[in-house]
């Protein structure tokens, strides 16, 4: 275990648990260069011991495949201990079944190790913005939206449908949040794409290749809602333009 004491921003503490020493060293170096205080561990057992102690951390970056106590085991143990620190899986596993399992057990995001550090950093910033970013000055209506069977919690990056949690990734949550915030209004493909990648980012084939990316996101989101409710139909499509969240009666209570 190593701990950094010479960063420019010691207010945010990130705990990294990964048995790949070279990858862990690179990730921690980048995190420290980005201004975080970092504590890292090479096994699930040592990381769990730290997390169950008196030390405080703001974010846990967790590998899945580790000998002995794997990442999912660590996540389950800390949730059983009522530790609600945001957890992001950073793993070589790519199968959707792992992602869904991680989210169902309380992780807030699931990112492949092949992604660049810039992508990982963006995810971390979004997660920390939700868990630390000024919710004390926001009203209940700002952090929680209830429309019909939907209960959206911005403070936890969680979405519930008919009182069951929808296992959305962080990016999927952001896309649903944007649609819900514009409920009843048509939202362009480009605007939905910008929610994830930022304005002006280009991807896919051709000038409008981003549309396929957005359609893939919406397809996965719909599938996750329909797994809980086969009759789900609140995300409506307007071919050639985009999507909208169907107008519903908002619950202010």
Contiguous uncertain segments of 5+ residues: 3-9, 132-140
The largest sheet is: 6 strands, mixed
* Form type: globular
User: How far is it from the N-terminal to the C-terminal residue, by CA?
Assistant: 47 Å
Q: Count the helices. How many?
A: 9
Overall helicity: 25-40%
Sheet-strand content, in percent, reads 15-25%
Determine the mean pLDDT.
82
Read across the widest sheet, the strand sequence of neighbours is 1-3-2-4-5-6
Number of E-state strands: 13
Helix vs. strand class = alpha/beta
CATH architecture assignment name of the largest domain: 3-Layer(aba) Sandwich
CATH superfamily of the largest domain, please?
Response regulator
Which class of the largest domain in CATH terms? Alpha Beta
The CATH topology of the largest domain, please? Answer: Rossmann fold
- SSE string, helix = H, strand = E? EEHEHEHEHEHHEEEEHEHHEE
Task: Give the topology, please.
Elements: E1 2-3, E2 13-17, H1 21-33, E3 37-41, H2 44-51, E4 59-62, H3 71-80, E5 87-91, H4 96-104, E6 109-112, H5 117-132, H6 140-143, E7 144-147, E8 150-153, E9 158-161, E10 164-166, H7 170-181, E11 187-188, H8 189-197, H9 210-228, E12 235-238, E13 242-245
Parallel strand pairs: 2-3, 2-4, 4-5, 5-6
Antiparallel strand pairs: 1-3, 7-8, 8-9, 9-10, 11-13, 12-13
Helix pairs in contact: 2-3, 7-8, 8-9
Characterization of this structure:
The chain is of the alpha/beta class. It has 2 domains: 2-132, Response regulator (Rossmann fold, 3-Layer(aba) Sandwich); 138-245, Arc Repressor Mutant, subunit A, CATH 1.10.10. It has 9 helices and 13 strands. It has helices at 21-33, 44-51, 71-80, 96-104, 117-132, 140-143, 170-181, 189-197, 210-228, and strands at residues 2-3, 13-17, 37-41, 59-62, 87-91, 109-112, 144-147, 150-153, 158-161, 164-166, 187-188, 235-238, 242-245. The chain has a 6-stranded mixed sheet with strand order 1-3-2-4-5-6, sandwiched between helices. Helix 2 packs parallel to helix 3 (71-80), helix 7 (170-181) packs across helix 8 (189-197) and helix 8 (189-197) crosses helix 9. It is globular. The termini are far apart.
């Amino acid at each position: 275990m190593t701990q950094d004491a010479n960063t420019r921003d010691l207010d945010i503490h990130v705990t990294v648990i990964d048995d790949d020493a070279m990858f862990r060293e690179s990730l921690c170096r980048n995190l420290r260069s980005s201004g975080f205080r970092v504590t890292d561990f090479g096994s699930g057992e040592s990381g769990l011991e730290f997390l169950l102690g008196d030390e405080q951390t703001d974010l846990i970056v967790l590998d899945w495949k580790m000998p002995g106590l794997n990442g999912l085991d660590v996540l389950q143990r800390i949730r059983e201990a009522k530790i609600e620190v945001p957890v992001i899986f950073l793993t070589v596993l790519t199968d959707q079944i792992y992602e869904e399992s991680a989210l169902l057990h309380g992780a807030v995001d699931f990112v492949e190790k092949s992604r660049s550090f810039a992508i990982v950093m963006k995810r971390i910033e979004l997660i920390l913005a939700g868990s630390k970013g000024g919710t004390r000055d926001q009203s209940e209506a700002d952090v929680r939206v209830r429309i019909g069977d939907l209960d959206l919690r911005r403070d936890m990056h969680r979405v519930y449908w008919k009182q069951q949690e929808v296992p959305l990734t962080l990016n999927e949550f952001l896309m649903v949040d944007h649609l819900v915030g514009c409920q009843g209004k048509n939202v362009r493909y480009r605007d939905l794409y910008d929610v994830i990648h930022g304005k002006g980012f280009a991807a896919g084939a051709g000038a409008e290749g981003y549309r396929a990316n957005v359609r893939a996101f919406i397809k996965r989101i719909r599938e996750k809602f329909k797994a809980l409710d086969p009759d789900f139909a609140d995300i409506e499509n307007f071919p050639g333009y985009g999507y909208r969240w169907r107008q519903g009666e908002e619950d202010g209570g």
